[in-house]
Write a structure and sequence with these properties.
The chain is mainly alpha-helical. The chain has 10 helices and no strands. Helix 6 crosses helix 10 and helix 7 (about 120-160) packs across helix 10 (about 225-285).
């Protein structure tokens, strides 16, 4: 009881009411329609299920009092299945409402996040532009790096006339020509992760791989700072969709497990009756 009260105290009732007021109530028709449809579906399934069980003799017992008592399964099954399908209807309605309002929710999340980091729109745009400039500078530096290495090995090749030295220089030149940008990006990545790792005393490369770093650099080079915002919103929208779907199917899975438990209770009780109670009662009569 105490843990339940603590849980209720931790709920942000103000935020919960704002969500219900601003998102759910304007679409109350969708919520009511889903509830009615699922309750109707649950009622039909419950009636059909009870009829099938009755015809199969699941609700019949030899003792008269037992035979009457077991008929209580019929209203209990109907109530139980209506409860499950009613919950399903509410959850389905809320899921559809939030899904419709998802773009607005995503925009509000994005704006709320920006307000936390930036004081105004100008600071945000300045930051986004700086990200792209950083990527451009990385690309420019990689080209300068390749030119410098080529010059180094060309000078070295003229000085080193030995066969082995010539082969080494040619191999080095080949890799620079074909993988120069990759080498520079990898070297830059290692410098950043090493510096960050020493400062934080952790291995940063475990949480931020080289592949992720390279994808981020290439991505920043491909898009403008205005397109970057659109892509962030798209990614955030996909993330929210995944979260909503995950939560929805997780709750529905729990409801389906509860529904299965409700539906198999008569079979379990009937099995117990047939296995142990009925033989004893028949022995007493004979």
């Amino acid at each position: 009881m105490e843990s339940t009260l603590n849980f209720l105290d931790q709920i942000d009732w103000k935020s919960l009411w704002e969500i219900i007021r601003d998102i759910v109530l304007p679409h109350s028709g969708t919520l009511i329609l889903n509830c009615i449809l699922f309750l109707f579906l649950g009622f039909i399934i419950a009636i059909v299920y009870c009829i099938v069980l009755y015809r199969k003799g699941i609700f019949k017992r030899t003792p008269k009092y037992y035979n009457w008592a077991v008929k209580l399964y019929i209203p209990l099954l109907i109530i139980g299945m209506l409860y499950v399908f009613g919950q399903w209807g509410i959850i389905r309605g809320v899921y559809r409402i939030i899904n419709v309002e998802r773009p607005i929710v995503v925009t509000n999340i994005y704006k709320g996040t920006l307000e936390y980091f930036f004081d105004n729109e100008q600071e945000k745009n300045k930051f986004l532009i700086s990200l792209q400039l950083l990527a451009m500078e990385t690309e420019s530096s990689s080209k300068d790096f390749i030119t410098l290495l080529k010059s180094h090995y060309e000078k070295k090749e003229t000085k080193d006339q030995s066969f082995i030295g010539s082969v080494e220089n040619k191999l080095a030149t080949f890799f620079i020509n074909h993988y120069g940008e990759e080498i520079y990006t990898y070297a830059l990545y290692n410098m950043i992760t090493t510096a960050a790792g020493k400062g934080a005393h952790v291995d940063v490369s475990d949480s931020f791989s080289y592949e992720q770093f390279k994808v981020a650099i290439d991505f920043l080079l491909e898009v403008g700072h205005q397109d970057l915002e659109k892509i962030i919103l798209e990614k955030l929208d996909n993330w929210l969709q995944d979260v909503l779907s995950s939560q929805y199917y997780s709750i529905i899975k729990s409801l389906l497990i509860l529904l299965i438990l409700i539906m198999i209770i008569p079979f379990i009780e009937y099995f117990i009756y047939k296995k142990w109670i009925a033989p004893k009662y028949n022995t007493q009569i004979s």
